[in-house]
Amino acid sequence: MVSQAMTMRPDDADARRAVAPVICYPTETLPQPDLALYRRARARAVKVEEVRVPPREAACFHAPAGSFFRISSVEGPQVGDLNLFHAENLSERFYSGKTRALHGTHLTTGDRMWSAFPWLRPMATIVEDTLAWYGIDAFGGSVHDVIGTRCDPYTNALLSGGQYHHCCHSNLTRAVAAHTGLALEGAEPLVHDVLNVFMCTGFTRDTGQYFMKASPVRPGDYLEFFAEIDLVGALSACPGGDCSTEHSSDSARCYPLLVEVFTPPADALESWSAPAPNGYDRSHGT
Ligand SMILES: [Zn+2]
C-alpha cells in the first residue's frame, strides 16, 4: 500500500517525480494477429459446442486450434474467471503476469493470452469485445483485467477465518479434476491466475489498492477469442456475481455464463498456422 509516512522528503523530490515513464515492453516488434483473416474465417464458422456454467460453479470446454470460443453474459450481470491450458500438455498454462506486462492491465480486441515459460506463445487472441466502449473510467477502472488472481478460500480464511468452498479457485479445481480425471490434489496446482472476464477493476490512485466495482456487462454482451493452439478452457462464474459488493460468499446475486465454440471450414485458415513455442534456446548461458 502506498504511504508517504516516516520518510524524509529529498530536496529534489519534485524533479525525481517529474521524470517521464518509459514503456517496459514496447510491442512494436510483437507478431501481430491477422484480425481480418480471423473475421473472414469467423463468418464461415459453425457452432460445435455449448457449455453453460452454473452460478458459483465452473466448467471446462475444448476449443481446437483454429476455432473460436465466445463467453456470453446471460440472464444477468456476471463476472467469469478464465483459465486456459494447452489441451495436449496441461503444464502449458496461461501466464497472466507476462500478458499484463505485454498488453497492459486489461485486455480487449487484438490482445492475446500468452502461455507460461518456456513456451511463451499466444494461446488465444481476442477477436471481439462488446464492452470495448467502456475504456478507462474516472476511477481508473476498466474491464477484463489480468491484475487480479482469482478469489480463493485461502485468502478468505486469512481475512475472515471462514471456510467457503465456491470461490473461483475451488470451482476451477473441481472442474479441472472432473475434466482430467485427476484427484483434487493433482488438479489444484494446475489452476492459475485468471483473465477476469467482464470484471471491472483498477488500482486506487491514493493507496494503489486493487479495487472492483459493478461490472458494466449486461445479458447479450460477450468476449470472443480465436484459439491459437489446441485449448482446454475452464471458466468459473464468480460467487461475487457482478462484483459490486463482495465475493467469497453466497451473498451476491449470481448468474450463469455461456461458452460457445465455433469451427470454421479448413480452407478458411489456409494462410494461418499455430504459433510455435518460444524461440529461446534454453541454454541459460551454460
Ligand atoms: Zn471469483
Instruction: Give the strand tally.
Output: 13
Which series of helices and strands comes N to C? HHEEEEEHEEEHHHEEEEE
Give the helix tally: 6
Number of domains: 1
Largest beta-sheet details: 7 strands, antiparallel
Q: How far is the N terminus from the C terminus?
A: 40 Å
The 3D shape can be described as: globular
Mean pLDDT: 95
Percent of sequence in beta strands: 25-35%
What does this structure look like?
- The structure is a single chain.
- By secondary structure, the protein is α+β, with helices and mostly antiparallel strands.
- It has one domain.
- Helix content is 16%, strand content 28%.
- It has helices at 13-17, 35-43, 96-103, 153-160, 168-180, 184-187, and strands at residues 46-53, 58-63, 68-73, 80-86, 89-93, 112-114, 122-129, 142-145, 195-203, 210-213, 222-227, 231-237, 257-263.
- Strands 2, 4, 5, 8, 9, 10 and 12 form a 7-stranded antiparallel β-sheet that branches. The chain has a 6-stranded antiparallel β-sheet with strand order 1-13-3-11-7-6.
- The relative contact order is 0.27.
- Residues 81, 150-151, 167-168, 238, 240, 247 line the site of zinc ion (ZN).
